[in-house]
Every structure is written in C-alpha cells, then in structure tokens.
Amino acid sequence: MVIKRRPRWTNWAGIYSCRPLSIDSPASEDEIVAIVLAAAERGERVKVVGSGHSFTDIACTEGRLIKLDRYNKVLEVDRDTRTVRVQAGITILQLSAALAAAGLAMENIGDVGYQTISGAISTATHGTGERFRNISSQVVAATMVLASGEVLHCSAASEPEIFKAVQVSLGSLGVLSTVTLRCVPAYNIRSVQQPNKVEELLDRFDELCAVNDHFEFFWWPHTEVAQAISNNRTLDPAPDNGRRAGFGAWVNDILLENHTFGLIQRAAQLRRSWIPHLARITARTMSRKVMTDRSDRIFANERLVRFAEMEYALPRGQIVEAVREIRAMIQRTGFLISFPVEVRAAAQDDISLSTAYGRPTGYIAVHVFNKFEFEPYFREVEAIMNAHDGRPHWGKLHFQTAATLRPRYPMWYPFMAVRRRLDPTGMFSNSYIDRVLGDVKHG
Ligand SMILES: Cc1cc2nc3c(=O)[nH]c(=O)nc-3n(C[C@H](O)[C@H](O)[C@H](O)COP(=O)(O)OP(=O)(O)OC[C@H]3O[C@@H](n4cnc5c(N)ncnc54)[C@H](O)[C@@H]3O)c2cc1C
C-alpha cells in the first residue's frame, strides 16, 4: 500500500506549520473556482495563503491550501483615475515596481513589502503616519470567489456592506481574486533616522507625529535609547536616479545591519544574561542616517533575522502611557528582551474589522527572536493592552478569542451577518478563525 504523505507548510517566522490535504497554485480565476467547487463537493475546508508573513496560524489548514504565487499579475493601470487592478497574489514589492514604472505609487505601506496584496488587506496591514490609513483603505473594489463558486464583485457603490467586510476579512469570506487600489502620483521620501532619549520621544510623540508625514520609533529595552525615524515626502530627487544610494549602501543597510543584528541574537541565545549589555552596545552604535529614495524603497526594509511579533492598536491618546507601562513591566518582571519595541501612528477608518476602526490609532509592537519563548512576555504586554481597549493585529500573535474581541469592534455583528451570508458552512474557516471570530453560525 502506498501512503501519500501530506505536504507541509510553515509560516515565515517558523512558529506555525500545518499539513494540508494539498497545496494548489492556480493561475486563473477559473482554476480557483474549480478548486473551491471540488472542495465544496467533498465537504473540505479551504484556506488561501499569501506570503505566509503572518506570525499566527491564520493561514494554516488541514483542508485544501491555495497559494496564489502564480496568480500575481497587474491587470490594468489607469493613470487618469490613478487606480490599478491586480490579481490577488501580487506582492507589494512587485506591485510597487509596476506602479513606479507607470509614475504611480501606493499611498502608504508597512515596513516590508513581501506580503501579497490580499494577505495585507485581509489582516489590516498598516504603515505609519497619523494622516494615512491602512492598506485596506486603499482598496476601491474587489472580486471574490465564494464557497458556492460564484464570483462576487463589490465596491463602495455595489454591495457596500459586503465591501466593508471584504476590506478586512481575515480570509474568512472567500478567495479574494482581484483587487482594485487607489494610488497616488509617485513620490520620494527623505528619511532621517537618529538615536534619541526614549523619554524625550514619548514626551514629544504627538508633536513628532504631527510635523512628520510618517513618524515611528524603536525603543531598545534595557536602555534609555530609541531610534527615531522621520519619513517625509519630498520633491528632492533620489541619488543616482533611484537606487537606494547604490550597492555600498545595500551592503551597509541590509547585509551588515541584518547580520550584525543576527549575531547579537545568537550571542543572546548563547547566554541570556548578556542581553542588557548587548542592548547597550547596540544603542551606542546607532547613528544618524539621512537618505532619499522612491517611497517603497524607503518604507520596505529587508528582514533577514526571523522573529515572533505581537502588535496592538490603541486609541492614539493612550499610546505614550502604554509604552511607559511596558517599560515598567520589563523592569518589574526582569524579562530579558533582545528586540526593540516599535511605536507607530495611523489615521482612523470605517472598515468593520480594521484595528483602526472609528478612532485615531497608535500601534505598539513587541518582538522576540524566533528561537526564544515569546508567551510570558507577550501575555504581560497583552494585559497592558487589554486595559487600554487594545485591538490585536490580526496577523500577529495574541491570545484573544471571539468573546474578548467582540466588544472591541462596534461593527462586529454586521461583519458576522456578511460572513454567514457568504460562507454559511464555514468553508473558509480554520482553527485560528474559529478562535478569533467564533463559529460562523453563532459568531
Ligand atoms: C517581517 C514582517 C514585517 C511586517 N511588517 C508589518 C507592518 O509594517 N505592518 C503591518 O500591519 N503588518 C506587518 N506584518 C504583518 C503582515 O503584513 C501581515 O501578517 C500580512 O497578512 C502578511 O501577508 P501575507 O501575504 O504573508 O498573508 P498570509 O500571512 O499568508 O495570510 C494572511 C491572511 O490573509 C488571507 N489571505 C491571503 N490571501 C488571500 C486571498 N487571496 N483571499 C482570501 N484570503 C487571503 C489568509 O488566508 C490569511 O487569513 C509584517 C510581517 C512580517 C513577517
């Protein structure tokens, strides 16, 4: 007897893996429909995976896994309306390159560009900047393959309730097939990075968010130092026509920085008690850097060291207090933390399950090297976030359930009504979706 082994799939962080019945890479919408219909007939669950850059088991399944790495084309660029229509599997890096060639850009993105557009949309991926909303807010229309095999078109004008749910769905409604995004004329960013006293940045957080287009900082636990990043739109040209200051800068920014950081993590792995000392050395070596380049090249960094991350969205006005509470908690517990704490800001939006729904938002992210245990630290941070009415990033680690999340989302029930309508049997659910959204019939 031949026993067919199931394929194995693991997320980027290496924290979660699963053994789906199959992993298919369709190249057309018809092929997606055929996979969904075949699974429906056999009563199997289906999950789509983007680039696997979520830190949770959100993309895991024991059913059929669909990868969209062959379904990643730009379908139409309209320079007049500044919109682009793409297949859902395109990555933000691929999309940004295609837009740049057409003199366009995305209004804002996160700090990497490896995600697929559909993965980024599904989890409410965001960048920083108090006047800028998340990537889901840049979507103006979408098509989705439903459990019935039907292809649904939605936008603010057509099926508006469904559209608000599709804009951030955790992949729980169907297979996003094509996405139309609102773009802006291509722009350059002047980026200034410099070390500062963390308390000074906290005191001036509101002012720094107001005067910069995209402000954020990374605080190093066990030190008083944070690296502040102020990114501002500029008419200045990028050096030598658009390469981020050439190969030398790439070696310095990407290779050396990532490898030095990797070495620090390995040293920390060798002896945890070295962490505070390593953090102080890191803080001392941080320096001022100024660069100008195409927006996506400034926003999207390379991340070569793998880690686990939790991130919470808080009402903007509570961010500074919450960061101070995390500082006090690390002091009190004696946790040894070798990764920085990241603090950002974003504009509010009106998308049902967006972490920035209905309130100006700040984000606090905590990280640990992926070889270290994350749970004790993340649980302490989560307790602080709970006290500030925090909403966890859907693609990052957290310990919430549907019962604890429901009161934090005013549009929870309208979203669930759409979910019941589009996926009445829970075909696009998995154990993560069951935990955070609940059973489709009662969620
Ligand atoms: C190094 C790193 C940096 C990051 N930086 C940021 C950041 O700056 N800001 C931020 O907000 N987040 C950030 N994230 C988180 C990341 O943006 C999200 O987790 C995002 O969802 C990952 O996209 P993905 O394509 O890998 O999706 P996956 O993780 O593969 O999938 C995420 C969800 O999307 C669903 N999905 C994907 N495609 C489809 C589709 N076509 N139809 C239906 N459902 C679909 C999946 O089923 C799953 O539920 C970062 C993650 C990493 C690893």
CATH superfamily of the largest domain: FAD-linked oxidases, C-terminal domain
According to DSSP, the number of beta strands is 20
Give the overall form: globular
Instruction: Name the beta content range.
Output: 15-25%
Keywords:
alpha+beta; 20 strands; 2 domains; binds flavin-adenine dinucleotide; five-stranded antiparallel beta sheet; single chain; Uridine Diphospho-n-acetylenolpyruvylglucosamine Reductase, domain 3; Vanillyl-alcohol Oxidase, Chain A, domain 3; eight-stranded antiparallel beta sheet; 443 residues
Give your account of this protein's structure:
With 443 residues, this protein is of the alpha+beta class. The protein has 2 domains: 74-185, Uridine Diphospho-n-acetylenolpyruvylglucosamine Reductase, domain 3 (2-Layer Sandwich), CATH 3.30.465.10; 188-392, FAD-linked oxidases, C-terminal domain (Vanillyl-alcohol Oxidase, Chain A, domain 3), CATH 3.40.462.10. It is built from 14 helices and 20 strands. The strands form 5 sheets. An 8-stranded antiparallel sheet has the order 16-13-15-14-18-19-17-20. It has a 5-stranded antiparallel sheet with strand order 6-7-11-9-10. The radius of gyration is 21 Å and the shape is globular. The termini are far apart. Bound molecules: flavin-adenine dinucleotide. Flavin-adenine dinucleotide (FAD) is lined by residues 12, 47-54, 58-59, 68, 88, 110-112, 115-116, 118-120, 122-123, 125-126, 170-171, 175-176, 303, 393, 395.
